[in-house]
Amino acid sequence: MAQLTPMMQQYVDIKAQHQDAFLFFRLGDFYEMFFDDAIKAAQELEITLTGRGQGEERIPMCGVPYHSADQYMSRLVEKGYKVAICEQVEDPKVAKGVVKREVVKMLTPGTIMEGKMIREKENNYLASFTIFEDESMGIARCDLTTGEGAVTLIQGGQAELIQELSATGAKELVVSKEVNSELLQELERTLAVTISHEEEAELNGRYVHLVKELTQSKLVTTYARLLQYLIRTQKRSLDHLQKVEWYHAEEYMKLDLHSKRNLELVETLREKKKKGSLLSIVDHTVTAMGGRLIKRWIERPLLNESAIEKRHEAVTVFLEDYFAREELRDELRQVYDLERLAGRIAYGNVNARELIQLKKSLQKIPLIEEMVTKLDPSFQERWFHDQAPFEDLIDLLERSIVEDPPISIKDGGMIQEGFHGELDTYRDASVNGKKWIAELERRERQETGIKSLKVGFNKVFGYYLEVTRANRHLLEEGRYERKQTLTNSERFVTPELKEKEALILEAEEKMEQLEYDLFVMIREQVKEYVPHLQSLAHKISEIDVLLGFATVSEKQHYTKPILQPVGDVFIEGGRHPVVESVIPKGEYVANDVKLYPGREMLLITGPNMAGKSTYMRQLALLSVMGQIGCFVPADRAELPIFDQIFTRIGAADDLASGQSTFMVEMLETQYALAKATECSLILLDEIGRGTSTYDGMALAQAIIEYIHDEIGAKTLFSTHYHELTALADQLEHVQNVHVSAVEENGTVVFLHKVIDGQADRSYGIYVAQLAELPRMVTDRAEVLLRELEGQKQPLPNVIERSIQETQPPQLDEVKEPQRQLSLFGEEITAEERKAQQSKAKKLDPREQQVIKKISEADLLNLSPFEVMKLINDCQQQLK
Ligand code: ADP
């Protein structure tokens, strides 16, 4: 490469320090990007790629105007990139040589404060983890917009780490460069996070107060790395960071990433939308803070009985008085996002309009406190005992900021009259000066008799008196001082006018500067209240969430669950909260779930689409709802406090998402089997269907036996392998249930009712009819089915436990019956085959081909869909 110009050399040096970010390099009125940054940014932002320099040495370059750069930067950050903003930090006029430039701020997915990515009802977390020598792992998270920070220490391996990090929902992860790159790739893939590096993990002395309560040095180190990253990238006040909360992961129900996704707790599986998730049903919050809190609660259901009970108690109280509750919610609606306002105040980017929002919110608090306390006097102690007084703050804002200030804080017009003497003097000077000028115009018109005489203003000459050329002769000589001659008029000044002008201009300039200074002073005073505002925000959000629970509980007729740390499941008339909300009112069929000693595992059979998955998820969702403090959709519900919930779905069910393979299904199942305890809930939905029939069945049976014998967790297992229902006779705690369906005039009606006993058939063909497969396919399938049913049992029954105990079944043994299965019977003799073939000879060649195809098909190694396709092909051939 040829010699770089000094400026390009400066660029290259700064870029070397920020290799993982787009470097926006300020050049006059533009931010420019060069080399690979330019090529990539041009693609990502769809802007023109140009070049700097000549010929082969031309450097790729692209740029954006500085005044609209924000949107381009935000777009890159939304895509998961980082942006380093490099400004000129000395005045070009006084600079010797190349103007000095420095990176003044980094924008990253986990640290941005504004823009589309900051959703009202969601936290924007930055997380960090540190792996210590003894293999324990510290995890820290922080939301820069609210200042909230938390840290925990966990044991375990990669799966636990992913689980805990996924619970933070972080957009960006800060780690040491020493962390194994394979692990980072896995995290990037599963959690869709941006990875950033920070080697410094010493706590910066200025922030000691944040970690005072963290008694373990590992926790401090973990948080310090995250903090150091913030200090390095933000380069501005972090005074709003809140005291770091030390949470213990074991105090919350463990929900691994797959279970959380499968249960659609906060977003739907396929579309990743809130609508259709549990969150969308139970979130009736009216403040942004409440919206964020409920999401955190759903992601971390509680395990502590009394903490859960406390939430239930509040819901009970709020539920009792509809009118008081609604009035209270109306008041809460008028409370702005105190937490993020506090963040902006401390961060220094709050404007006067937001300070008015703060004032209005604070003015609501006394009434809210009164209303809450009136509902239950103990709530005074619960939420308001340490309430800081805000009268002085309200008073300050009332006196200082006008009711409807402009958004900009640079153009004046924000500060109340009477707040500051000097400002008032300037304002008077400006107003009086302008009045004086208006009076001058009136007087001079009268005295000179020139009606068109006027006073004007421009930036070059200031104020002047203007007389048209036609009227010039009416002006007595020497009355004014001539300043400028135009084609049709002349402009004059008088010493008095100049004097007033100086006063007015000075006043106006000073006014704007003084308003800005006063605003900054007020903001600094408000900043003192930041910790109190944050604490108030917590209380308000909690009240908001609980009021919302009461609202949905009343609307949807939920009941208070009875929770016991270790106990049985007795649900009467339970409903799936999301499904019941999307189907026509009154059509949901409520179901009981009973799990108790001797009946701890339910083997659920029934036609596809009958409601097996719904039934299983219903139990999990009721448990989550109960453990976050909400009431549950059931007539009566007694539930244990589950320590973990595992939800696994057979791979075939999840094919549409394009992610699941049989291997994933097995890995997930392995994780559940390794981690579940007898206090856990396991939902296994069609596990084993991702492989061939025998394999799948054998695995399913072995898994059921393992959970039964080794874990003892409450388990719901749905399967289309009817043969497995025989397990209920062999395993003490297994009970068959099925979702009922009836046949009416050749069509099947799903009753969605779950009852004891096994299903008698699988109704697959009826589902195919429902899906409007060609009539020929379903008719033919029915004929084939009848034939098959006429044959001997095509699959072996479950393998007797006694056999298994003495002699584990060999795969070959299980596969043995494969030979027996033939469409025309088991073990056909050569003679029989001949007879069949001669019979076939009477058929036309196409029919013969079809028969050949069917008789040679290795059904046991085909998936149901492949069988369907086979039949379809045959039918096409016969047409
Ligand atoms: P399966 O797992 O047996 O294939 P699903 O649980 O997916 O069936 O249920 C299929 C559909 O049936 C659901 O989307 C829902 O519309 C309806 N459904 C399920 N359970 C009920 C119920 N208890 N009451 C009313 N409709 C239900």
Automatic annotation (TrEMBL):
CDD domains: ABC_MutS1. Coiled coil: none annotated. Residues 680-696 form the DNA mismatch repair proteins mutS family domain. Keywords: ATP-binding, DNA damage, DNA repair, DNA-binding, Nucleotide-binding. ATP binds at G606, P607, N608, M609, A610, G611, K612, S613. The keyword ATP-binding applies. Gene3D superfamilies: 1.10.1420.10, DNA repair protein MutS, domain I, MutS, connector domain, P-loop containing nucleotide triphosphate hydrolases. It comes from the Bacteria. SMART domains: MUTSac, MUTSd. The keyword Manganese does not apply. This is DNA mismatch repair protein MutS. PANTHER family: DNA MISMATCH REPAIR PROTEIN MSH1, MITOCHONDRIAL, DNA MISMATCH REPAIR PROTEIN MUTS FAMILY MEMBER. Belongs to the DNA mismatch repair MutS family. This protein is involved in the repair of mismatches in DNA. It is possible that it carries out the mismatch recognition step. This protein has a weak ATPase activity.
